[in-house]
Design goal:
Organism: Bradyrhizobium japonicum
CATH superfamily of the largest domain: Lrp/AsnC effector binding domain/regulation of amino acid metabolism (RAM) domain
Order of helices and strands: HHHEHEEHE
Low-confidence stretches: none
Number of domains: 2
Helix content: 25-40%
Shape: elongated
GO molecular function: sequence-specific DNA binding
Keywords: DNA-binding, Transcription, Transcription regulation
Pfam families: AsnC_trans_reg, HTH_24
CATH class of the largest domain: Alpha Beta
Number of strands: 4
Structural class: alpha+beta
Largest sheet: 4 strands, antiparallel
GO cellular component, one term: cytosol
CATH architecture of the largest domain: 2-Layer Sandwich
Strand content: 15-25%
Mean pLDDT: 95
Length: 157
Amino acid sequence: MQYDRTDARILEIVQKNNRLTSEVIGEMAGLSATACQRRLKRLRSDGIIEADVSIVSPKAVGRPLQMLVLVSLERERTDIIDRFKKAIKSSAEVVNGFYVTGDADFALYVTARTMDDYEQFTRRFFYENPNIKGFKTMVIVDRVKVGFAIPIEAADD
């Protein structure tokens, strides 16, 4: 996966606003619209751009409770880890899931409509799973910064 300085500029632009037209992005990056489209297509096919998404307000869609949950497994076996990763991917409540090092095995970002809904989720997702050693919930009071933008280093040409 290689990119040049122009690709880096395009990546900076689309991370801030991916709804801009190829004409506008191209103008900002010093390219024609066609050249910009070609580069965007390559950046997507090479997996440098993983997805084009919108960040939705949890409160606006009726899911005002947000939690960070640290999860520890009973034992670290690949089959157990793989099953838990699959459970994370199939759970609508889990917005983001990370396999991590440190005191926990996984860190999850979870949303819920109410605390009762979160309790039902914990019963179903954690307590009914015999491979879960424990979990610790931290309720998010304020989303101070939200986004997915990655700092882009200008590549050597």
